[in-house]
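Hey L., structure's done. Input below.
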Amino acid sequence: MTPVLELFKLSKAFGPTTVVNEFTLNIAPGEFVTLIGHSGCGKSTVLSMVAGLTDATEGAMILSGKETNEAGPDRGVVFQSPCLLPWMTAMENVMLGVNQVYFTATKRERRELAEYYLTVVGLGNAMDKYPGELSQGMRQRVGIARAFALQPKMLLLDEPFGMLDSLTKMELQEVLLDLWRRNRLTTLMVTHDVDEAIFLSDRVVMMTDGPEAEVGDILTIPFERPRNRAAILADPLYQEIRNHLLTFLNERSHLRPSKIAATVAPDSIRQAELPESLVKQPTI
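Output:
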């Protein structure tokens, strides 16, 4: 299966400091992948390069078979703060992108598209409200609806629930999964939340500490979809997966696979206690 996104030795330097070093990853059609790592390791930098908002210093990015390094409507982006225009209603904020991307469609068709996604995220009765009249969670729902309404090839999420309380975060995770199931959009998400990564992802990519951060480990999440949060939490494998991710973050994130591999046999640097089928080495 041809990947939707191919990142080959993507690097980013700010002045003399290389923040991300030779980041290599392939993402399959319809796959949901999350990046986790310590603050400052370059997760958001990787996402920004994929979005075309930050130029890569070295390396290549191929999206749907074409090399690209510019931003475009083929990637929908949701940030930690939804960045809504305060003088526009929820509907108008979503329509802003829809009008630009689907300018050949009729006005009614464009509005119906925006209405559909606002309704799906639970804002059917708040379409005409302004951002100042919405809670933080509701504003983030507008941001999610805006990204999906563009019907992009990829969805990019930069800690979209990081500013929300636990209950609202869980609600919006379910909203996101519902939309994702309907569209099966190829998704790359940045998060600090290990439990969020497990619940949402097909694969979790663990980044080493910066500077010169790289792919440290990749873990496949085995739970079938659609997912039930209570069932996953009750599964004995859940704690094993969680412990593996936390062990990497607490004990192994300082290691560089590229440097260790030069002097040590690959099998000796794998420290996971999970079944072999769950542990994936970085795709080169």
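The longest helix spans residues 166-183. The chain has nine helices and eleven strands.

-- N.
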